């Protein structure tokens, strides 16, 4: 069976799957379980990505301490590859982690640094909860700086060992990760899956978070999960979450959402263009004269349409709104809705908001 969807229906499916409809999410764990990943990023013109992503789903009831509690105390979420993920995903990820790495150069680096690997694991076993800078660099073969990593090889080794499921992030001191052995961080007696079954279940979880995605997309890898679908006016072959189809008639309506540039809703750029007619470009790395909307402008979602960009920055006492760029002029009701959401953002930040 192939579902035939209008563009409006496809957009509504995406918005609801991403918890951006009128029904606010209840808590941090619900958001993580639904989205699958909450991006971590230090860029903080308004708030760090992980916090603004959660605020955009939960609203004024969200407090940053709720995230740290879920990760460090309750162990309901874990940090992996630059995102907080629900612990329910870990059993599905472990079969692939045990087979990592596939790249020959990475395997060769690990083999050449086997004694270094042993040193890192021994230090963690003896002391635990360590920053990378607390662990001696005894690497035999080094990887050159690449713009993301410096010369300290401990950072590489810890990241590689995390991908193999041997070490884990146990918490943070500010923006610094604290490391320990995975066996002391992750729950014991997790379900065991064969690789093929785990990958199938991961594809299903990705589709649930996406709602609908291109069948062969490198951005949202859903494979053959869900059911086939077409979308009015698109030549793409889609896969759609059957539960999302069933919920189409139970539509709670839309709202205004201000999306951090690293929000997962924005990750699949081709899908944004195909379904929402929104060509999103992050201007963070553009020279200032080439920026149209601002260094780290937040896309503004209204219902199932992107209607503008918010260029703003927060300080200790004020949310300064440099501009609200309207793709098409707002009518009075739209203007009021956007202003109300910006006011809620300032209230959440516990600062005043400037006029614009």
Summarize the structure.
With 356 residues, the chain is of the alpha+beta class. Helix content is 36%, strand content 19%.
Care to describe what's here?
With 356 residues, this protein is an alpha+beta fold. It has a domain at 256-353. It is built from 12 helices and 14 strands. Strands 10-11-12-13-14 form a 5-stranded mixed sheet, covered by helices on one side. The chain has a 4-stranded mixed sheet with strand order 1-8-9-7. Helix 12 (332-349) links the parallel strand 13 (318-326) and strand 14. Helix 5 packs across helix 9 (195-210). The longest helix is centred in the C-terminal third of the chain and has 18 residues, at 332-349. The protein is globular, with a radius of gyration of 22 Å.
Share of residues in helices: 25-40%
Summarize the biggest pleated sheet: 5 strands, mixed
Question: Which structural class do you get from the secondary structure elements?
Answer: alpha+beta
* Rg result: 22 Å
- Write down the oligomeric state: single chain
The main sheet orders its strands as 10-11-12-13-14
Average pLDDT, to the nearest integer?
Answer: 96
Key features of this structure:
356 residues, alpha+beta, 14 strands
């Amino acid at each position: 069976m192939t579902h035939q969807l209008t563009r409006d229906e496809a957009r509504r499916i995406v918005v609801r799957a991403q918890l951006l409809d009128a029904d606010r999410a209840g808590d941090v764990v619900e958001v993580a379980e639904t989205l699958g990943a909450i991006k971590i990023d230090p860029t903080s013109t308004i708030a760090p990505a992980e916090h603004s992503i959660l605020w955009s789903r939960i609203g004024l009831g969200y407090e940053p301490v709720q995230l740290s509690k879920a990760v460090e105390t309750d162990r309901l979420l874990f940090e992996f590859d630059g995102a907080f993920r629900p612990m329910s995903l870990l059993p599905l990820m472990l079969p692939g982690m045990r087979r990592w790495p596939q790249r020959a150069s990475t395997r060769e680096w690990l083999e050449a640094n086997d004694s270094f690997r042993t040193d890192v694991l021994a230090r963690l076993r003896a002391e635990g909860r360590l920053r990378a800078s607390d662990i001696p660099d005894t690497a035999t073969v080094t990887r050159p700086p690449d713009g993301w990593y410096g010369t300290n090889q401990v950072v590489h080794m810890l990241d590689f060992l995390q991908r193999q499921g041997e070490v884990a992030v146990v918490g943070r001191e500010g923006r610094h990760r604290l490391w320990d052995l995975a066996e002391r961080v992750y729950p014991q007696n997790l379900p065991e899956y064969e690789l093929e079954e785990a990958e199938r279940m991961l594809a299903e979880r990705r589709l649930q978070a996406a709602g609908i995605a291109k069948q062969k997309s490198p951005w949202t890898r859903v494979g053959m999960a869900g059911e086939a679908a077409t979308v009015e006016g698109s030549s793409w072959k889609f896969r759609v979450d059957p539960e999302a189809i069933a919920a189409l008639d139970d539509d709670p309506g839309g709202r205004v959402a201000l999306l951090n540039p690293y929000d997962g809703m924005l990750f699949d750029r081709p899908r944004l263009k195909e379904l929402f007619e929104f060509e999103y470009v992050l201007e963070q790395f553009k020279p200032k004269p080439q920026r149209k909307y601002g260094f780290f402008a937040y896309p503004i979602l209204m219902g199932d349409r992107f209607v503008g960009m918010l260029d703003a920055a927060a300080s200790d006492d004020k949310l300064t709104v440099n501009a609200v760029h309207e793709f098409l002029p707002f009518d009075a009701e739209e203007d009021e809705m956007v202003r109300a959401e910006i006011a809620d953002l300032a209230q959440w930040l516990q600062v005043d908001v400037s006029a614009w």
